[in-house]
Automatic annotation (TrEMBL), chain B:
Keywords: Cell membrane, Membrane, Transmembrane, Transmembrane helix
Name of the protein: Monovalent cation/H+ antiporter subunit D family protein
Main location per the UniProt record: membrane
Family note: Belongs to the CPA3 antiporters (TC 2.A.63) subunit D family.
Length: 568, 495
């Protein structure tokens, strides 16, 4: 195969260049064809491919295909195709070019066989995706994008620092199992943790994603965090710490999601919650658990993408995204409503929908490995998901009180993209064997046995009951036009205020000291000027040179002094 | 012919300079200067090839044998520096004709080329000679011509900056001369190799220690090591922009060469690093240079000032590599000498293009410039990324090697500090990019739209340098191999 050696990101980068130079139908064709060709190429690949080059003194592996990376490769091609179809109506060169670059960088990252290549694509991801946020072209979007970029670059720097330590310890840059050993392991772990939205490191996600453009958010939701999940699955499977981090990630966003008004931000929180399931799976580290995590990543991209697309459609058609401003849209947007409900059913893991077949794998693995407490937390989180993503999103957008909006369904390309995602959700739910065949580890697992179905159905039923009851009694947190404080309040307000006040005090002190010192200096200068009787103007020009020469003298004296003291 | 290579380097521009005065027509003078500089570039390529193939070359000037006569000696280090200087000088000269059109009155343009060639002579001479006093002579040639070049700046403050530089440069050169004189007094020789053999006998005398201290301080002044950097920002900012592009890539690099040559080859490793706690002093000064200069760069309003301070910060990186005093550390320094020359010449040349078209040197004047001059601004962005050390650019290569060298030595707190300092680079580069890309253009009188982008005579050299920034960031064979060879031979690991 002449194409086998061609890394998967190359077609995307070439297409980005072509897309920048073309317009209209031609550009649309290029953008549609690339993911299809790329996927076919991946399909035709022999089982394992590695490309090696020598860079500096190191053996690098910019392209490595094995079952784990291949799985994410397919996923990203699929996600790119859906997102591109969804954005066909957009007439914005910047967004379209950046979308291709972004998808290409994600592919480059999952097929990177060494840490340096990974770092390069890690930074490419950051620098391409930020333009999807800036493409909103508002001051808010610009500021959010800046914060996003800062965090992402920090993550890249940590990764680079980790790579430097790693190469020093091991003498190689190959990206295989890392584990939490030494500085390298921890630095890379934190770098991945930022991208993966670990608790307290998650603020960039909920801050930036809702500010991106309608189509940008769909893309963003597919790639960045999933690359991090891939890297965790590659470098840290079986790290017990991840189980607890993941469990925390499944639970804490629920509270924020329930009170949040911006429906896209609700989805951003629910994204962290879903990432939590994957992180738990990777942390448990058995074949079943890692398979579950990866299968869940696959499904999450599709159903979360579907939900983001549905909310994007709402935003696009109505111009509003706050739950308090929406409602009653089912009358005029029946297709979007239906598709959104399918996405909601998938994310809540209804039997026969895709979420069910992957989430249950992680939960079973948690029980099998005696993480009983974690299992309970996951159960709670599952109920919470149904609450905020399964019911809240469709209910407030399409039903609830009628906001009087009468807009039609979105353009056909958006509907088509959502339809593809919805069909996939159901297909995977009904016939999970197809998905299981792609997973990296062999296993015989059947999600459809009586216990699973009963547990899940009961859970969902009671959760729905709770929602109905709370809503009828008026206890359910109403959708308010308010901004909820997340932990980033500490980063953005509290610490900022502390620093500002400290600096203000320091500045005052500094000014006082300086005034005193300068007063003394000026008094001396005046004295000199009066005694020399030549006027103070003389000093203003000659002082800089004087100070330079003084430094020379100081340095020379210091050198001489030190050497004489040491040797004579 | 080939056996005369080492001296031809210096002779060619030295002959061309007075010839320029005779011709006196700017266009022809320009062509002659390019030819001369291009010739030295070819010669330095040949030299490098010969050195790599057959080891160090020596040349006896006038047939006088080494300790008595003046000897030219080219080893890996010299050949590497010669290549950098002549290459940058040639590329910059390509842009010179257009760039000085608006900055230097036509009747003075000939003088510009004469001075330019003389300073080239000086720098190439410093790098190729093997005689300590001869080095001082060339140092004076290059310094005197650079004072003249800086004073040619359009801004009246250029005169003042040149004057400051003159005083400081003269002090530096005098210190070096005092050092050389003391060494001569103690050993009776001026040849560097001879000195290195005779100095150990008298190493424990006050005179030698004093000589060493004077030379170190003099050289530090020339290379603008913090806190002896004060002359540099103004000299760079008010000089004609083409001169800035030229000096930023060559002058301080030559000073680094002199430092390495004196400490490693003349005084010898064991003396240099025991006479003074040189490692610690340089490490502290280098680190504080990185932070102080980067912070100063962040607050500058004049874009040339921003990048001038950035140069001081980058000298800090080189000095830190030097202070590690391992083969890996010195390799990192030499690599950064090469890479920094590429970044800064690209940046300052792109600024020259901006100044040529718009006259803008202040940050606020850069607002919306990306729409007017997309190609030039794209070059600034790429060169800026290289300065930051983004992967696939030369900046990344230097940073990587420096970090590895630091960690090998076990100085990882320094590595962390360097990464932090690097974040400051992001800030000051970002300020320029933000102005150019995220602000609407300044409202001005309507300009002719066909004359927005810089002319090709400027764009071409800029993009050659930017391409080099990327090419040598990917294909690192040349730079790393030669830097490694040079470092190894200086440490005596390889003969």
């Amino acid at each position: 195969m002449w194409m086998a050696e061609l890394p998967a990101f190359v077609p995307f980068f070439i297409a980005a260049l072509l897309a920048a130079l073309s317009r209209g139908v031609l550009r649309a064709t290029i953008m549609l064809v690339v993911p299809i060709i790329g996927a076919i190429q991946l399909y035709l690949l022999p089982e394992t491919v590695t490309v090696q080059v020598v860079f500096f003194d190191y053996q690098l592996m910019p392209y490595r295909v094995d079952k784990l990376s291949l799985m994410f490769g397919y996923l990203f091609h699929l996600a790119a195709l859906i997102a591109i179809i969804y954005s066909l109506h957009v007439r914005d060169t910047l967004q379209q070019v950046v979308a291709l670059l972004y998808a290409g960088s994600a592919l480059g990252a999952v097929f990177a066989g060494d840490l340096l290549t990974l770092f390069v694509f890690w930074e490419c991801l950051a620098f391409s995706s930020v333009f999807l946020i800036w493409a909103g072209r508002t001051q808010r979007a610009y500021a959010a994008g800046m914060r996003y970029l800062l965090v992402q670059v920090l993550s890249g720097l940590l990764l680079l620092a980790g790579a430097v330590f790693y190469v020093h310890d091991k003498g190689t840059l190959q990206f295989t199992y890392l584990g939490l050993q030494g500085a390298a392991g921890w630095l890379i772990f934190i770098a991945l943790g930022i991208k993966c939205a670990f608790p307290m490191l998650h603020n960039w996600l909920t801050d930036a994603y809702p500010e991106a453009t309608v189509t940008g958010t769909v893309l963003l939701s597919a790639f960045t965090t999933k690359v991090a999940i891939y890297a965790l699955a590659r470098g840290y499977p079986g790290t017990e710490l991840l189980v607890y981090i993941g469990a925390a990630m499944t639970c804490f966003p629920i509270f924020f999601a329930v009170i949040e008004n911006d429906l896209r931000r609700v989805l951003a929180y629910s994204m962290i919650n879903q990432l939590g399931f994957m992180v738990v799976g990777i942390g448990i580290g058995t074949a079943l658990a890692v398979n579950g995590a990866i299968a869940h990543a696959f499904n999450d991209v599709i159903f979360k993408g579907l939900l983001f697309m549905a909310m994007g459609a709402v935003l696009q058609m109505t111009g509003r995204i706050n739950g308090s401003d929406l409602g009653g849209l089912y009358k005029t947007m029946p297709k979007t409503t239906l598709l959104c409900i399918i996405g909601a059913a998938s994310i809540s893991a209804f039997p026969l929908f895709s979420g069910f077949v992957s989430k249950s794998m992680v939960m079973v693995a948690a029980l099998e490995n005696n993480f009983n407490g974690v299992w309970l937390l996951l159960l709670f989180a599952s109920a919470g998901v149904f609450h905020h993503a399964g019911i809240k999103i469709p209910y407030f957008a399409f039903f609830a009180h009628d906001a009087g909006l009468r807009v039609s369904d979105p353009p056909n390309n958006m509907l088509l993209a959502m339809l593809i995602a919805a069909v996939l959700c159901i297909a995977i739910g009904v016939y999970p064997a197809a998905l299981y065949a792609l997973l990296p580890y062999e296993l015989a697992y059947s999600p459809y046995d009586a216990t699973h179905i009963l547990t899940q159905t009961q859970l969902l039923f009671f959760s729905a009951l709770a929602f109905v009851w709370l809503n009828l009694r008026g206890y359910y947190p109403p959708e308010l036009r308010a901004i909820n404080l997340d932990t980033d309040w500490f980063y953005r307000r509290f610490f900022a205020a502390v620093i500002v006040s400290v600096f203000a005090r320091l500045t005052r002190l500094d000014r006082a000291i300086r005034r005193h010192v300068m007063a003394v200096v000026y008094r001396c200068l005046n004295l000199l000027a009066r005694s020399n009787n030549e006027g103070g103007v003389l000093f203003s020009r000659s002082r800089p040179i004087g100070s330079m020469v003084m430094w020379v003298a100081v340095l020379l004296a210091a050198y001489l002094f030190i050497s004489f003291v040491e040797h004579f | 012919m080939l056996s005369h290579l080492p001296v031809l380097q210096v002779i060619v521009p030295l002959m061309a300079a007075p010839l320029c005065l005779l011709i006196a027509k700017p266009k022809w003078v320009w062509l002659l200067a390019i030819t001369a500089s291009g010739l030295t570039f070819v010669l330095s390529c040949l030299l490098l090839q010969q050195v790599v193939a057959a080891g160090p070359l020596t040349y006896e000037l006038g047939g006088w044998e080494a300790p008595w006569g003046i000897e030219y000696r080219i080893d890996y280090l010299n050949a590497f520096l010669l290549l950098i200087i002549s290459a940058i000088s040639t590329v910059v000269l390509f842009a010179a004709h257009t760039a000085i059109e608006k900055e230097i009155p036509s009747k003075r343009q000939t003088f510009f080329y004469v001075l330019y060639l003389l300073s080239l002579v000086g720098m190439l001479g410093i790098v190729s000679t093997g005689d300590a006093f001869n080095l001082f002579v060339f140092l004076e040639i290059s310094s005197l011509s650079s004072y003249g070049l800086i004073a040619l700046g359009k801004d009246r403050r250029a005169l003042w900056a040149a004057y400051q530089y003159l005083i400081m440069g003269t002090i530096g050169a005098t210190f070096i001369l005092i050092g050389i004189g003391l060494m001569y007094q103690m050993t009776g020789t001026l040849n560097m190799e001879d000195l290195s053999m005779r100095l150990p006998e008298v190493a424990q005398t006050r005179s030698v220690f004093t000589a060493f201290a004077f030379i170190i301080v003099g050289v530090c002044l020339k290379l603008a090591l913090f806190p002896l950097h004060l002359w540099l920002p103004n000299a760079y900012a008010y000089a004609p922009s083409i001169v800035t592009a030229y000096f930023s890539a060559t002058a301080t690099k030559v000073a680094i060469y002199v430092l390495i040559r004196f400490t490693f080859s003349v005084f010898g490793l064991s003396f240099s690093f025991t006479a003074l706690p040189l490692q610690m002093i340089f490490l502290v000064l280098g680190l504080s240079g990185i932070f102080m200069a980067s912070i100063a760069a962040i607050y500058q309003q004049n874009v040339k000032h921003i990048f001038a301070y950035s140069s001081i910060a980058h000298i800090g990186y080189m000095i830190i590599g030097y202070s590690i005093s391992t083969v890996a550390g010195l390799t990192a320094t030499l690599l950064h000498v090469f890479n920094h020359a590429l970044m800064k010449s690209a940046l300052f040349l792109a600024l020259a293009a901006v100044i040529y078209r718009t006259g803008a040197v202040y940050l606020y004047q850069f607002q919306g410039l990306s729409q007017k001059m997309p190609l030039t601004m794209a070059a600034i962005v790429l060169a800026g990324l290289s300065l930051i050390g983004a992967p696939l650019t030369v900046g990344f290569v230097s940073k990587w090697y420096l970090l590895i060298a630091l960690i090998e030595r076990g100085w990882w707190p320094v590595a962390v500090l360097i990464l932090l300092g690097n974040l400051l680079t992001v800030v000051y580069v970002w300020r320029v990019i933000e102005m150019a890309y995220f602000r609407p253009p300044l409202r001005q009188q309507p300009v002719d739209h066909s004359k927005q982008e810089a002319p090709y005579s400027l764009l071409l050299p800029v993009w050659i340098l930017v391409a080099a920034n990327i090419y040598f960031g990917i294909d690192t064979r040349l730079s790393i191999q030669v830097a490694e060879l040079a470092a190894q031979s200086l440490f005596g690991v390889r003969q």
